[in-house]
From TrEMBL, chain A:
Gene Ontology cellular component terms for the protein in this record: plasma membrane
Cofactors named for this entry: [4Fe-4S] cluster
Family: Belongs to the complex I 23 kDa subunit family.
Membrane disposition: Peripheral membrane protein
Protein name: NADH-quinone oxidoreductase subunit I
Note on cofactor: Binds 2 [4Fe-4S] clusters per subunit.
Automatic annotation (TrEMBL), chain B:
Functional note: NDH-1 shuttles electrons from NADH, via FMN and iron-sulfur (Fe-S) centers, to quinones in the respiratory chain. The immediate electron acceptor for the enzyme in this species is believed to be ubiquinone. Couples the redox reaction to proton translocation (for every two electrons transferred, four hydrogen ions are translocated across the cytoplasmic membrane), and thus conserves the redox energy in a proton gradient. This subunit may bind ubiquinone.
TM segment ranges: 6-29, 77-99, 119-139, 160-178, 190-211, 248-268, 280-303, 323-340
Source species taxonomy: Bacteria, Pseudomonadati, Bacteroidota, Sphingobacteriia, Sphingobacteriales
InterPro entries linked to this entry: NADH_UbQ_OxRdtase_su1/FPO, NADH_UbQ_OxRdtase_su1_CS
Reactions catalysed: a quinone + NADH + 5 H(+)(in) = a quinol + NAD(+) + 4 H(+)(out)
Coiled coil: none
The keyword tRNA processing is annotated on this UniProt entry: no
Membrane topology per record: Multi-pass membrane protein
Assembly mode: NDH-1 is composed of 14 different subunits. Subunits NuoA, H, J, K, L, M, N constitute the membrane sector of the complex.
A Gene Ontology term for the protein's cellular component: plasma membrane
Domain of life where this protein originates: Bacteria
Family note: Belongs to the complex I subunit 1 family.
Protein name: NADH-quinone oxidoreductase subunit H
EC number from the UniProt entry: 7.1.1.-
Automatic annotation (TrEMBL), chain C:
Transmembrane segments: 6-21, 28-45, 51-73, 85-106, 136-157
EC number per UniProt: 7.1.1.-
Source organism of this protein record: Albibacterium bauzanense
Keywords assigned by UniProt, alphabetized: Cell membrane, Membrane, NAD, Quinone, Transmembrane, Transmembrane helix
Catalytic activity as recorded in UniProt: a quinone + NADH + 5 H(+)(in) = a quinol + NAD(+) + 4 H(+)(out)
Name of this protein: NADH-quinone oxidoreductase subunit J
Chief location: membrane
Length: 173, 345, 165
């Protein structure tokens, strides 16, 4: 066929010479290479004991944040669920009752907040959508489970642990 | 045959059997370790320190897995296949001389199960029988891929048996004996090792040994990329385990054979110059023999993780058009050398 | 002697099984076992070399090839062509003739005097080789030519006919 670009190069394959044809030198070369690798430093990172260094913007498990008084920040606006391309988030909103001000920052809060970790693609759009800075993907990997239902994370797993002792807080008041 | 003799042989058989099985078990681990190390990984190292309990875990897994016999399979032969494979693999080690005689009290204990005067041929026969295990298993599975694997195994083993036999003939011309015990005893010291007399024959034998044990680069009977799993595609649980085990035992036996007939077996350099008693020489000899065997097993694995697999026509070309003529030439050359040596020295 | 009778019984039994089993693969396997018992006979006769060679060549190579071909042919009862009554009748007549000849041969049967093994080493390779290359050199070489002819013939048949294809 005529070459259109004129850049075609025809590769000439020379017939193998005697040493190439008996293969043995090539085999020994290969053996030397594998033997060298045998004594090289190993790249294995033995995972649970050692971990690879993660990038700073690694997106792992979600956590629902609390404010500086230990109150949940989420106001159940549903923007995260709306922005989620994988439709992994569902929630049920509830109104804050009298006396719960130390638990929830806003008047409306999420009574149920669930993320299906099997659907989630860890894109981080929920994090970006949240107006209250309530959700961040700053956790580690999602651990494996035996059952699918165990991958639907409720508030018990998502809300971060209060860093201020709540009883102490109420005593101070 | 007195009673003590029977007891002695019985103990020897048990010991050889156990050693064979343990080495085969640890070859499975070593294989994965070597693979790992050559690919800059660590290999399995979770079960016990350095993974030494891994073979036990694997064995346990094999025993407890569900056993499936396909509905269309030929049941008796399906079961006979792996049985035959493991039996033929195990009986091969009977004629290998593990060491010189031990003197315990006034008894002289030979460290060889049976000194058959056609020892080498016995091993050949056993190897030839080994292919039945694969063929029966492959055919009885009632599966195209298995059948193809079986057919490949059969033609491969017959083709390479020829070259192997011819390379052995040249060796026999040098040793003048078919008995393994005598062949090993002749190679005293270091310069008498048969490898110096028969380098070409050893090369041919080595290549054929790879082909006979179905190891890479000749593992076409079980080649995963073309035949799923080859002859053991339909096998599960311990039957599959037996096939794999027989492969490793075959590797062990052929390593032992090569070490014995080409690399002096239990002989080591300066063995009589160190002023040791006969029993100590024997014990060190056994030790040295096992080091040689393990070196060969390592070589098998080393090759496996270095070379790619042959194509089937290349395999046949190599066997029939390269190795057999080479082996014939080797016989002729050996004959000429022997005559020249008789004439002039 | 009891060992001999036992092994002889086994070889006859498996030989019969070879003939009467329906499945060709079974037939071949019984034949393999028959050859194995032959090997044992050789060992009993103190001919280890013959035994091992029988083992390697017959069991290890020839029967593997038989099995090889049978596995590829996939023969079973359905593909068996129905034999006409004529063929069956012929078979019966031929079988009868064979039995008559066998029976007749018993009449001229004599027990030979028990064989004295003069040299117990007679079956070993060295002695065998000497006999073959000294006393029986000519027949030995002729048989090798025969084998060569067969080989050449096989290669010729196996070659593709270039003109037709
Ligand atoms: S990370 Fe992406 S996929 Fe996962 S819950 Fe948030 S928005 Fe949905
Ligand atoms: S996490 Fe943020 S975006 Fe989602 S419902 Fe709560 S406040 Fe709204």
């Amino acid at each position: 066929m005529q070459s259109l670009s004129n850049r075609k190069k025809i590769l000439e394959q020379e017939p193998m010479n005697f040493w190439e044809r008996i293969y043995l030198p090539a085999i020994f070369k290969g053996l030397a290479i594998t033997l060298r690798h045998f004594f090289m430093k190993k790249n294995t990172i033995r995972y649970p004991e050692e971990t690879r260094e993660y990038s700073k913007n690694f997106r792992g498990m979600h956590s629902l944040k609390r404010d500086e008084l230990g109150r949940e920040r989420c106001t159940a606006c549903g923007l995260c669920a709306l922005s989620c391309p994988a439709e992994a988030i569902t929630m049920i909103a509830a109104e804050r009752q009298k006396g719960e001000e130390n638990l929830y920052r806003e008047e409306k809060y999420a009574a149920v907040y669930e993320i299906n970790m099997l659907r989630c693609i860890f894109c981080g759009l929920c994090e970006e959508a949240c107006p209250k800075e309530a959700i961040y993907l700053d956790g580690p990997h999602v651990p494996p489970e035996y059952l699918r239902k165990d991958f639907i994370y409720g508030k018990d797993k998502l809300v971060e642990q209060p860093f201020i002792n709540l009883e102490e807080l109420s005593l101070n008041k | 045959m007195e009673f003590a003799f029977i007891i002695e042989k019985f103990i020897l058989i048990i010991v050889v059997f156990v050693i064979t099985l343990v080495i085969a078990m640890y070859s499975t681990l070593a294989e994965r370790k070597v693979a790992g190390f050559m690919q800059d990984r660590l290999g399995p190292d979770r079960a016990g320190i350095f993974g030494i309990l891994q073979p036990l875990c694997d064995g346990g897994k094999f025993f407890f897995k569900e056993e499936i016999i396909p509905a269309g399979a030929h049941r008796p032969l399906f079961i006979l296949g792996p049985t035959l494979a493991i039996i033929t693999a195990c009986i091969g080690s009977a004629v290998i001389p593990w060491g010189q005689a031990l003197t315990i009290g006034d008894r002289v204990v030979e460290l060889q199960v049976a000194d058959v005067n056609v020892g080498i041929l016995y091993i050949f026969g056993v190897v030839a029988l080994g292919v039945y295990g694969i063929m029966l298993g492959g055919w009885a599975s009632n599966n195209k891929f298995s059948l193809m694997g079986a057919v490949r195994a059969a033609s491969q083993s017959i083709s390479y048996e020829l070259a192997m036999g011819l390379s052995i003939i040249a060796l026999l011309m040098v040793t003048q004996s078919l008995s393994l015990k005598e062949i090993v005893a002749q190679q005293e010291g270091f310069v008498n090792w048969n490898i110096w007399a028969q380098p070409l024959g050893f090369l041919i034998f080595l290549i054929c040994a790879f082909a006979e044990t179905n190891r890479v680069p000749f593992d076409l009977p079980e080649c995963e990329t073309e035949l799923v799993g080859g002859y053991h595609t339909e096998y599960s649980s311990m039957k599959l385990g037996l096939y794999m085990f027989s492969e490793y035992i075959n590797m062990f036996v052929s390593s032992a054979l090569m070490a014995a007939i080409y690399f002096g077996g239990y002989n080591f350099p300066f063995m009589y110059d160190l002023g040791l008693s006969a029993n100590w020489i024997t014990i060190i000899g056994v030790f040295v023999f096992f080091i040689k065997i393990i070196a060969f097993i390592f070589f098998f694995m080393w090759i496996r993780w270095t070379l790619p697999r042959f194509r089937y026509d290349q395999l046949m070309n190599l066997g029939w058009k390269m190795l057999i003529p080479l082996a014939l030439a080797n016989i002729a050359l050996t004959g000429v050398f022997i005559i020249l040596k008789d004439k002039f020295f | 002697m009891t060992v001999f009778y036992f092994v002889a019984f086994l070889s006859l039994f498996f030989a019969v099984m070879t003939i009467i089993s329906k499945n060709p693969v079974h037939s071949v396997l019984y034949l393999v076992v028959t050859f194995f018992t032959f090997s044992i006979h050789y060992i009993l006769l103190n001919a280890q070399f013959l035994a091992v060679v029988n083992f390697i060549i017959y069991m290890g190579a020839i029967m593997v090839l038989f099995l090889f071909v049978l596995m590829l042919l996939n023969m079973n009862e359905d593909s068996e062509p129905l034999k006409s009554i004529f063929v069956k009748a012929m078979g019966v007549i031929a079988g009868m003739c064979f039995i008559i000849i066998l029976a007749a041969s018993f009449k001229v049967l004599q027990t030979s005097p028990p064989l004295e093994i003069i040299n117990p080493e007679i079956g070993l390779v060295g002695n065998l080789g000497k006999v073959l290359f000294k006393e029986f050199l000519l027949p030995f070489e002729i048989s090798s030519i025969l084998l060569l002819t067969a080989m050449v013939g096989a290669v010729l048949l196996g070659k593709k006919d270039k003109k037709k294809a």
